[in-house]
Amino acid sequence: LLTWSVVERKRSRFTMGAEASKPGVAHAFVKLGKDGVAASDAAFWNTVLSGNTPTYAAIPADSIRKAIKEVPQNVGLLARMAVGKLAKAAEGKGNMPQVEQEGVLAAASLLSRLLPIMYESEHEHHLVETIFWKGEMPGAAGGEAAIPLAPGLMDSALVLMFRVGFTVASEPERSAGWNGGITASMLKGSPKSLDMARVEILKLILISCSQTLFVTPDEYKATENKWLSYYTTRTPAQAELLMQSLCAVIFSYDPVGLGIPYASSMGPDKKESVVDLAVQTLIVFLDYVIPGKGSSTTGAGSGVATAQVLDSVKLAKPEANTANAFRNALRSLSAEDDFSVVFEGLCRLLNNPHQANNTLLPSSMKQISCFQELLILFWKLIDENKEFLSYILRAGDINELVVPMLYFMYEGRKDPSKIGLIHICTFILLLLSGERNFCVNLNASFNKKLPVDLPPFTGNHADLLYIVIHKLMTDGPNKLDTLYDCFLTTMSNVSPYIKTFCMPAAQRATSLFEMFATKQRLFRNEHNPRYLVFALEVFNNIIQYQYEGNPHFIYQILRRKKVFADLQEIIEGGGQEELAAAQKAADADESQLKYKPTAEWVKSWAEGLPLQPCMRLMQHLLPQLEQFCTTGNVNDETIVVDFLKTTTMVGLLPVPHPILIRKYQQNEFTSLWFTTYIWGVLYLRNQTPPYFDAAHIRLFTISYVDA
Questions:
Q1: ∠ CA 115-117-123 to the nearest 5 degrees?
Q2: pLDDT tens track for 501-514
Q3: Is 439 left (phi over 0), alpha (psi -120 to 50) or beta?
Q4: What is the sign, positive or negative, of the torsion defined by CA atoms of 204, 681, 270, 350?
């Protein structure tokens, strides 16, 4: 079963600079945690609401916790004052005065600081429910009118996302979306003066949704996140406008610009902060399913076995999810101009990390940090919008996305904190491998130089795929064994369409077969026979569909004649000797209590092994090859491969089997995994300043490694 925990690198304590020193705000917060403050004390509340992000980040979390526990009425008034400032600004028209802008930014920053700390113990004090949803003030006299703050906060934030002179430059941009929408965003950007406001409002929206972090997985499945339910049930027009805006800033972003070395070191890039928050907000919205109103899923349990995400039947188009307006907006995207901007943006941004690590001058190119969020968004796009998937496989060079994913996987195996990154790349490749056009495109030559220790080879993108998967399965962390099903399924799915594999790729594919076919390994784990079937399917697809172009692969299969002979022995003899040894080992090892091999278990898989094409190959070709090598005293692989190019198996093989493609099938396990993965990424990416306290996170566990 696949479980999820976040691995965080130990870091030095975050400290604020000189701009954080606003003693008036700090002193006001001290008073907030001690004494009752009257709503009419305008001077006090004006002081509290005069800070900024660094100011509020510098307020110790414990002082806010103290106020929540001892004087909750102050916290209620503080929230009401801040939301009121946002609501007043949202009602305004025309350009917003500078003083009002500063007040709105302060209120948004304050709420972004306050909400996560309130969420920490919401399951104990229910203060968020009381103040933000019921509209009641703790300790207030009976009869006072209830004013729920949450709808006002969210409505105000959504309006302020499109306030002229604050977050958009003009009335047309307010109507079309940030930067004019997806297609227009490549022609015009937005003034830098708008970036600060966009960052603070987006941050407030994202953090207001973060209550998910503070519930257990079981609670998440059973309860509703009211904030996300409210955001994701806006009108179709609102959802489309916001999605167009977020996609516009994400996919038009160019971290390199004119390509001047070290240009990014000249100052902070606020545009990148907007992009980070835009993609984070969008994937949170797209991921959310209101309990009881989402698409139906199957299965039960507390994890995800990768066998459960595979389906031998074609994947049906996702049902309409009328509950989530953003999913519907994503599915409604159909303009090819939009698709082109999105695809080119994904290619530009996802290739940036390996390009930035492959420069002549060290660290001379800016490197983005939001690649995990972008991969999640790419996943959502191809999973929800089949028109977009069809477009990128027909009109785009999909290998421009395959290469960075394989790079992330190859490098990620060395870093415990990147296990989730490997998973998301694997799931994307598995989904893509179910599409014929994707598999055919892998035949394109691979000519790039990646900053990794790949073995030298001359070949295509399928060769790169096989080499990377082999490395992950033989030199990756143990936690990746839950992905073996997906790795081998992807290899099997693409194999019928690959015209030729190079020798290094063929060697590695056949070595995986040998790894699972050895008698000791085969009986060690109940899943290994299944892995063996996938490896044999790869061989059979190549023998029956791509024989002429794959002499390297045929040669590597023939070299494993002893492995095939041993398998035949097991099938014919029931593996009695190996079975007895495995049973004895299971009795001695208490960790194997859940799995103890039996004769019935051996029979269940041994009779179904698809060995016939390989055995026919051995029967016909092996005598010819051995005679050729003996007669000519040949011991050079190149000469052997040249000989195999002259051979044929036409008329000697069984009738070709239909090409079997296993496709990704989502269920409740994978849905929960994606949710926890998304929030794990967001937790790690919002630590400077730290918005979420690890000690109070309940959605997943957090472990630490040395930086």
A1: 95
A2: 999 999 999 999 99
A3: alpha
A4: negative
- Which residues lie closer than 8 Å to 417 by C-beta, 6 or more apart? 6, 7, 8, 9, 684, 705
- Give phi and psi for 7, each to the nearest 5: -105, 120
Q: How far apart are CA 200 and CA 440, in angstroms?
A: 45
Confidence bin at 292 (pLDDT 50/70/90): confident
Q: How far apart are CA 667 and CA 295, in angstroms?
A: 9
In the three-class reduction of DSSP (H, G, I as helix; E, B as strand; rest coil), residue 707 is classed as: coil
Give the span between the Cα atoms of 316 and 306, in whole angstroms. Answer: 19
Residue 318 CB burial class (10 angstroms; 0-12, 13-18, ≥19): middle
CA gap 337, 230 in Å, rounded: 31
Q: How many other CB atoms are found less than 10 A from the CB of residue 124? A: 8
- DSSP, collapsed to helix, strand or coil, labels residue 606 as helix
Structural tokens at position 492: 């099997």
- Report yes or no: 707 and 11 within 8 Å, Cβ to Cβ: yes
Query: Across the chain, which distance is largest between two alpha carbons, in Å?
Result: 104
CA angle 396–400–402, rounded 5-degree value: 110
Task: Name, in order, each residue with C-beta under 8 angstroms of 177's C-beta and a sequence gap of 6 or more.
Answer: 241, 242, 244, 245, 248
Check: CB of residue 338 under 8 Å from CB of residue 345: no
CA angle at 633 for the pair 630 and 638, rounded to the nearest 5°: 105
Instruction: Count CB atoms within 10 A of the CB of residue 566.
Output: 17
AA letter at 16: M
Write the CB contacts of 158 (distance below 8 Å, at least 6 apart in sequence).
Answer: 205, 231, 234, 238, 242
If you average pLDDT over every residue of the chain, what do you get? 88
Whether the pLDDT of residue 322 is over 80: the answer is no
Distance, in Å, from the CA atom of 550 to the CA atom of 443, rounded to the nearest integer, reads: 13
pLDDT per position as a tens digit, 516-569: 998 878 888 888 999 999 999 999 999 999 999 999 999 999 999 999 998 988
pLDDT digits (tens, 9 = 90+) for 80-133: 999 999 999 999 888 889 999 999 999 999 999 999 999 999 999 999 999 999
Does this model's pTM top 0.90? My answer is yes
